[in-house]
Amino acid sequence: MSHNNTAFHQLLSPLSRHEFESLAKKYHCGQRLRSASRWDQFIGMSMSQLSGRQSLRDIQSNLEAQQDKLYHLGAKPIARSTLARLNEKQPSELYQALFYKLLSRCKQPVGNHKFRFKNPLYSLDASAIDLSLKLFPWAAHRADTANVKLSVGLNHANLVPEFVSLSDGNENDMVAGRKFTFPKGSIVAFDKGYVDYQWFGTLTKQGVSFVTRLRPKAVYQVLERNDVNKRQGVLSDQIIQLNSAHALKRGAPKLRRVGFRDQASGKFYMFLTNNFKLSASTIAAIYKDRWQVELFFKAIKQNLKIKTFVGLSKNAILTQIWIAMITYLLLAFARHNAKSGWTVQRILRVIQLNIFERRTLSEILKPDPSRHKKDEPQMRLVL
User: What is the pLDDT of residues 185-209, one digit of tens each?
Assistant: First the structure.
């Protein structure tokens, strides 16, 4: 029988141990680590993401039970007190840097989204990760709530979050959104929470198109009207200039206003874009496809450990969330081993039951039904 590494080992294969150790040396504070390494911390925390471990004691027990299989990963079991100390004290920036290093090494080609145009398509949004105000007072958002904010720029071609930022719950969505540098020629869809006239001008100068919603009280002048196809739900297609004092002061560019009625729900929408080439119906479809980023947030909150935490400090929370994002990235890259049409969520549920199995990922994610068929019944009733 041929030898196979565990499914966990194969899932981690896109990671370069040499790059990890270089980053670990860069993002280190305090004395030299003795009883455990940052790699041991990462293996323990990523294992907890994949297998749904609920506590530090749970993580320690499972690592000890699989000690012989950790050897080939270059890791060893880690005591819960040591893991808690590393999560609390050692900088979470290591895993932020590791996320982007992994993304750059394994980036897939763009242009595979469902639309005909070849421009990269992104959805930009933010979601609050709720915390207990009593346990996490440093994350206080209001008098009765606490949270941290996860901002994401999701690539529709591979459903991978290419831009990720973690911030305080009090921070406006625009602060993180403006830090993302989308590639020239790309199209970004976002909701009204990101409406900023100065940023509209910046995106236009950078050659980045956007699709968003027009605010109800926006002041504008219609410069030109285009023909519309009402059978497609398009009621208006206009070139406008935002001409309020606020917009003019911030250099708002000429924009395109598209009025659209959804034929299924009957709801009316007013879209705003700086793209003058795509059809009005495509503009509406791009905004509708922004729902992919909502599905992304739903998937990670339901399947990864970013709602219950094994630490209380801000650094421990950020460490756990960044490792969750790295885990999602590894699962997304494993999709080429899975059946066509499988989501990251479905892959994760299968991996959870086979994390330390010594079978190839292809065998786990693409099982051959003929292997389990028998010519004769397993049991016969003897009369």
Answer: 999 999 999 999 999 999 999 999 9
**DSSP one-letter code for 147:** E
Residue keyed to tokens 């915390």: 131
- List, for residues 87-122, the tens digit of each pLDDT value: 999 999 999 999 999 998 766 544 477 888 889 999
DSSP state letters, 163-232: EEEEEETTS-HHHHHTT--PPTT-EEE--GGG--HHHHHHHHHTT-EEEEEPPTT--EEEEEE----GGG
Q: Where are the domains of the chain?
A: 7-104+309-366
Alpha-carbon gap, residue 163 to 175, rounded angstroms: 14
DSSP letter for 376, please: S
Buried b (16+ CB within 10 A) or exposed e, 217-230: ebebeeeeeeebee
3-state secondary structure (DSSP) of residue 123 = strand
Per-residue HEC secondary structure of 350-373 comes to HHHHHCCCCCCHHHHHCCCHHHHC
What gap in Å lies between CA 319 and CA 93, rounded to an integer?
A: 8
Q: CA nearest 273: which of 283, 282, 288?
A: 283
Interhelix angle 80-89/314-333, rounded to 10 degrees, is: 100
In the numeric block, which tokens belong to residue 354?
A: 């086979």
State the pTM of this model: 0.89
How far is the C-alpha of 313 from the C-alpha of 88, rounded, in Å? 6
d(CA 265, CA 38): 52
Any residues with CB less than 8 A from the CB of 174 and at least 6 apart, and which? 193, 194, 196, 199
* E strand residue ranges, the chain: 121-131, 146-155, 160-168, 187-189, 209-213, 220-225, 234-242, 254-261, 268-273
Distance CA 57, CA 83 (A): 10
